Amino acid sequence: MVLLRSILVMFCLVLLHTQASGSTTDTVGFGEKGITYQVQYTSGSTYQWFIAGGTIISGNNTPLVRVNWGQTKGLFYIGVLERNKFGCFGDTVWRKIFIADKKFPVIDGEDMICLGQTLMLSASGPDSVYRDLEYEWSTGETTQSIVVSPNHTTIYSCVVYYNGDAVDTAFHQVTVLPYPRAGFNYTPRFPKTGDMMTFNPLIKSATRYLWKINNEVAGTSPTLRKVFDASGSYQVRLIMENELGCSDSSEQKITVNGKLDFYIPDAFSPNGDGEYDVFVVDLPSTLKDIKFNIYDRWGAMQFNTNLHHVEWDGKKNGVELMTGAYVIVLEAVNEFNERVYYDGTLSLMR
Questions:
Q1: What is the pTM of this model?
Q2: Beta-sheet strand order (sheet of 339-348)
C-alpha cells in the first residue's frame, strides 16, 4: 500500500544546499497509469523531472507530475531538479521506484475471527523473484509470518525491505467478533401439559439458532414455541452461532406438570354476611405430598396446609388480613406419580 508519493527538495538562495538521496522506496504495479508525484512548491521555481522505467504524461517543469509506468519489472528511479527564481539549480533528488508484477507488499490471513482465537498473518513481496526481503511488523516482530490473538478489532501493518530499503507498507484489519451469549428464558414458568410454551434468547446476538429438547432438534428460529403433551422433566438446550461459526450454548431443565382437574375459587369475602365467607377447596383424594400455600403480594406466607380439604377464613393468627390480591401456590403428586403444580391469584374482599 502506497502511503505517500512525495519528494521534498531543498532550493537555493545564492548557494545551493545539497539534499542526499533518501532510502524510501515506492512500489507500483507494472503498467500502472496516472500515478502522481509532487514536491513542495517554492514560488518562482521550476522543476525538471527524470523518470526511468516510465513516461511523463503531464506536469514536467511543475511541482506535480503524472507518470505512466512501463511493463518492465525491477528497481528504477525518479528524480527532480529544482531551479529557483534566481536561476540557481539544486542537486537532483532521487527516489527508488520498484515496479512489481502487482501491488506489493500484501498481508495474507483471515480478516475476521472470534474473540480468543489466534490467526497467522504473512507478508508477501514485493515480487517472488526478489530474495533476501526483510520485514518489520507493527507488533515489533521481524519474521515474514506472525501469530496474533487480538481482543478487539485491530489494524496490523508490515514494512517490507529490499536490500535495506523500505519498499512499502502493507495493512491488514482483523475484525474481532464476540461470542454469542446463549442464555434463554421461557413462559409460563410453571407449565402444565397442553400449555403453549415460548422460549426466547436473552440476547439475540447470533446469525444461527438451534433448539434441542432431550437432544432432539426442536427448532432453528430465534423463538421456539412448544406444547408438551406429557408431564415430566425435559432438557432444553439452545445453541447460538455467529457468521464465523463461533458458538455458545445454554441448557435448562424444565418440569411440565399434569393438568389439574378440580376447581379452585379465585375470590371470597370474609365479611360475616354468610356468603363466601370462607375460602374452601376440596382436593382429589388421589393427590399426595400436598403443599398448599397462600402468599401476600410481598411474598410473605399467610396460610398453608397439606390436607385435602382446604379451608381459610382470611386471617393469620386470628388477625383479619387486609383486602387485596393473594397468590395461591399448590404442589402435589397425582395418581400417575406426576408432579402437578398450580399458581393463581385469589382476591380477598371485605
A1: 0.48
A2: 267-268, 339-348, 324-333, 288-295, 301-305
